[in-house]
Amino acid sequence: MVMSAIESTVELVGALAEIGAEIVECRACPRLVAWREQVALEKRAAFRDEEYWGRPIDGFGDERARIVVLGLAPAAHGANRTGRMFTGDRSGEWLVRAMHRAGLANQPESVSADDGLTLHDAWITSAVKCAPPGNKPTPAERDECAGFLRRELVALGSMRVIVCLGTFGFDAALRHYGVRPKPRFGHGVEVEVEGGPTLLGCYHVSQQNTFTGRLTEPMLDSIFTRARILAATP
User: Fold this and answer.
1) Which one of 38, 48, 126, 194 is most buried, counting C-beta atoms within 10 A?
2) What is the mean pLDDT of the chain?
3) Is 0.70 surpassed by the pTM of this model?
């Protein structure tokens, strides 16, 4: 029996929702659980009147996305506060503005989980699902989350390209697809996975890169222009 487009969409949404529900309840890594909850309790002064999410963060966007954006992990006072990846911090501002310019987001702002942001043909996720101390997950924590990422990428059956933010995201994608020998990360580097998507390297949208000029808006725009071309290539 051939599955209809509607049935296929319902199955896809259900699979991603199931993965997301498991992610947000995960307590597998004691160090990450302690850190994310400590940050949520102590808060940053600017957000002292807000209730922090303080839990793992699942991916979000268009379930039939051809373009996936893969980051490192939730930011302590960004996604760990708002409950959505790249939301409520400077990195999110840069990323979503660029995605809006590329026609992948309906608005140029990402400030809260209920701000009306929707993505078209794009999905945003991370290799590690909890905010790590110093933005540095341990190898064991990275590997613990790899199962979630693997299931997520498998469920995103329309995916054609993964925009890998920074070395961590790039390496996570290489491990997932078993790419050997390991290519060197660089901004604009492309790796074609046999039978899979193209991995597209991009400097991370962290303030360390955007404040110093290592990553500029035209550089980021060029990545999403290329991603759209790759996504449309038969």
Assistant:
1) 126
2) 95
3) yes
